[in-house]
Amino acid sequence: MGIVFKGGTIINAAETVKADVLVEGEQIVLIGANLPTKGHQVVDAKGKYLLPGGIDVHTHLALPFGGTTSSDDFETGHRAAAFGGTTTHIDFVIQPKGGTLHDGIATWRKKSQIANIDYGYHLAITDLRDEVMNEIPSLLDEGITSLKLFMAYKNVFQIDDTTLFRAMQTAADNGMIVMVHAENGDVVAELTAKLLAEGKTDPYYHAVSRPSTVEGEATGRAVALAGVANCPLYVVHMTCQEAVEQLRLGREKGFPVMGETCVQYMFITADDLKRPNYEGSKFVCSPPVRTKKDHGILWQALRDHTLQVVSTDHCPFWFEGGVNGRIPGKELGKGNFAAIPNGLPAIEDRMKIMWTFGVGEGHFDANRFVELNCTNPAKIFGMYPKKGTISVGADADIAIWDPKKRETVSAATQHMNTDYNIFEGYKLKGLPVAVWLRGQQIVDGEKYLGHNGYGKYQKRSPHAAVL
Description:
This protein is an alpha/beta fold. It has a domain of 316 residues: Metal-dependent hydrolases (TIM Barrel), CATH 3.20.20.140. The longest helix has 18 residues. It starts with a strand and ends in a 19-residue tail after the last strand. The mean pLDDT is 97.
């Protein structure tokens, strides 16, 4: 017996069509009008949309960082993702200092044994010794096709230009993609020390220490090096006009460069870091949130295809950590903005927010929404057409989307494992009401049907598309 999704409207990146969908086992096997239902379970999708399950390619679950650990793991984070219509994500394996890349993979394998949705790994390289450089091609055997390198976090993760360029050459030779955190870490370190010496310790000064110009400079440098190495480059969490301009320039020159922004960067501003009673720490992330002008720049870059993906950089921490058995959280940075754990909760809200304000306010249409949140992530990171589309042969990752359903965002009702929500009070319209992952329903309204261990590791293909 299969499942027939009856009477809905399929929205893919390139088309919108009213049709039925037949699922057998884990895959979509037939799409057409008036499909027979005898012997099958019938799901009534009349008046609703059928969207591919969302793909969030930038997450940090159970990540040790800044003296604590991010508060969502591969159970709670996956449950929250599912309620937001996301069925697949890619998390960042962190190479341990002095260790190998495969040491990091072994650690993440253990963390992800409880996976509820499908997942993959990027490899964040923190110690690129010669023997580690030689290890990179072996990642393809693990289905890992993407490397992340940091141009920031001096004396912790930051690499120099020689190392970055050599990594790009190795990646290009092996059909891999390089991801960069693009901020000039040397300048950030100088500004941070200066501000702290002046007694400027509040959360707002986190943004002051990382101005948009240092993001733009580092983005331009990475784009230029990628052009020389002819290496596919993906600039993560882009926030501002200066960075977007550098990416657009590289694309105009024909360089194989792409970029993402994250949902928070179109809504939150640096003024939120000024909220009293240390509330501003809730919005501390790197790069920092910017200005309303930058919001407009990012929306335009999503419309004109300068940016290819919307992700989250989901890395939540408790605001009031260290109480009721909680692990420490944002309070670690009281009196020193540089010690605030960097990261925000967003994995549950990404698609709902982007539908309400992206589609609902006319920034782009529903097809572009699917392209940014589902299809492009699958194409760029080697999972298409298995993921990111509703088509015959694809995994049956399907979200039934009700364009009329409304919700008010609240930490009191969210599924993310943290005590605040950066979108608190936002009024949403257009929400997922039921979600399937590989043919198994995991969300039914407010009921969660998923379970630990159902999520499957996704081995990804090299030589993926540059969009």
